[in-house]
Design goal:
Elements: H1 2-9, H2 17-24, E1 39-41, H3 42-66, E2 72-73, H4 81-84, H5 90-96, E3 101-105, E4 113-117, H6 119-134, H7 136-148, E5 154-156, H8 157-160, H9 164-167, H10 173-176, E6 185-189, E7 195-199, H11 210-216, H12 221-228, H13 247-259, H14 277-293, E8 298-300, H15 301-305, H16 318-323, E9 328-331, E10 338-341, E11 345-346, E12 349-350, H17 355-373, H18 383-388, E13 402-404, H19 409-420
Helix pairs in contact: 3-17, 6-17
Length: 427
């Protein structure tokens, strides 16, 4: 049975008449099209807001480490604000957190501020590097699975770089990680000369989605066994926000959606009609899987857009996020558009925290400490004193508070128009 399951999860070609007949009946189910209001979630917005600063600090830390001089000048990062996703100038940002970045004047130009890493930042970085080594096999699997979802099993490196932090890849992964696993990855050049990362093997055990894995054990084991026998379909976890009108209509719509066959994101989808309801459910599955593979169960919409063609997503796939608010949450915080997986959070905190996210919580605690003590002389605090303090996650409120933003079709259409417009992000 296990061999049979894995054989179903392998990529198939369009010449398979059995699969075509299996899905042909389900291509057009005619599920209702329900217009939903956009509901703001203050808890998730707060997480996105705080982790934007955390991510920027981590990227700056890596940039200082890569610098041959061991420091960065204010001139070198003057135009990085947009790249880092910050809403303030980078110089002001670095001065906010003296526990991570130590400012000093340039040896030749006294008016040129320079920044190096503090002892605390170096200590945290050493913990992070140790975790990268300890959990390297997990990182390799996660990267393989992202590549395995694409049509060509290849992703341009320039599309992977923005996702590095979200996927938990080590800095310079293409140089330090990829060469260690030649049986898994290979860097190739596309016809246009762009460097790409290609997955070499197809590990059968990787080609099982997070949704399928979540149903394998526990109370849901029977449901998964029935799914493997073809007796049922897998249902996506749903957590609807408050503020919806016509709940009965929404519930009926979601029931019809859940009845559609679940298409693994690792299956070849070229035989599915791109305009069918089945393809829409397949797209939901792909986005659900990709977000599940990120450490914080979220990423920027523009990062997904760069993978749109390889993942076989529709041109305006943002509509998927707003059509299924029980699965996804779309945030407009920090002058960008971020999408999060609702099931990944409970009461404003990550449900399943990767060890790397715990180190990042320490980073954020150190950042907050520096912000509080910067006027009192941060040199009075040793790295040990800072790290021994209680590290509480400040990533969200205790309760998931939601405010209804859209109050009717007109407001909803305005939001959708803004979200679907190309190039509207500041990413």
């Amino acid at each position: 049975m296990k061999t049979f399951l894995f054989s179903l999860l392998k990529p198939r070609t369009t010449s398979e008449p059995t699969k075509l007949l299996l899905h042909h009946h389900h291509q057009w189910r005619g599920i209702a099209k329900v217009r939903l209001k956009w509901v703001k979630n203050r808890s998730l917005d707060h997480i996105i807001d705080t982790e934007t600063d955390l991510k920027a600090a981590c990227l700056l830390k890596d940039a200082i480490k890569r610098s041959p001089t061991g420091f960065l000048t204010a001139k070198s990062f003057a135009d990085w604000q947009k790249l880092l996703g910050l809403t303030v100038p980078v110089l002001r940002f670095m001065r906010r957190y003296p526990t991570l970045f130590q400012e000093f004047p340039h040896v030749r130009y006294a008016n040129l501020p320079c920044f190096k890493l503090t002892d605390t930042a170096l200590l945290l970085d050493s913990q992070e590097q140790s975790l990268h080594q300890t959990h390297e096999s997990d990182t390799v699997e996660r990267l393989c699975r992202v590549l395995m979802m694409t049509k060509s099993k290849t992703i341009p490196l320039q599309s992977l770089y923005p996702l590095k932090w979200d996927l938990g890849l080590p800095d310079g992964f293409e140089k330090v990680l990829v060469p260690k696993y030649p049986d898994c990855f290979r860097i190739i050049k596309a016809s246009n000369g762009i460097g790409c990362l290609k997955v070499i093997q197809w590990p059968k055990e990787y080609a099982v989605s997070e949704l399928q894995r979540s149903k394998e054990g526990g109370d849901l084991g029977d449901e998964y066994r029935q799914f493997k026998r073809g007796q049922t379909v897998l249902a996506f976890p749903m957590n609807f926000p408050r503020g919806y009108g016509g709940q009965k209509k929404v519930r009926v719509w979601m029931e019809e959606f859940q009845k559609l066959p679940y298409i693994s994101p690792y299956e070849d989808s070229r035989h599915i009609d791109p305009n069918s309801d089945l393809m829409e459910k397949r797209v939901v599955g792909v986005l659900h899987e990709l977000l599940s593979l990120t450490l914080h169960k979220k990423t920027k919409r523009n990062y997904l857009r760069s993978l749109r063609e390889e993942l076989n997503l529709p041109h305006k796939f943002t509509r998927i996020f707003t059509r299924y608010p029980g699965i996804f949450y779309l945030s407009l915080k920090c002058k960008t558009t971020t999408v999060a997986l609702r099931e990944g959070y409970q009461r404003g905190k990550l449900v399943n925290r990767h060890p790397l996210t715990r180190v990042r919580e320490k980073f954020y605690h150190v950042m907050r400490t520096g912000l509080l003590y910067r006027s009192q002389g941060v040199h009075l605090l040793s790295p040990q004193e800072i790290l021994l303090n209680s590290v509480e996650s400040e990533s969200g409120a205790e309760e998931s508070e939601e405010d209804e933003v859209g109050t009717g079709d007109e407001c909803y259409e305005d939001e959708m128009s803004n979200l679907d417009s190309e190039g509207s992000d500041e990413d």
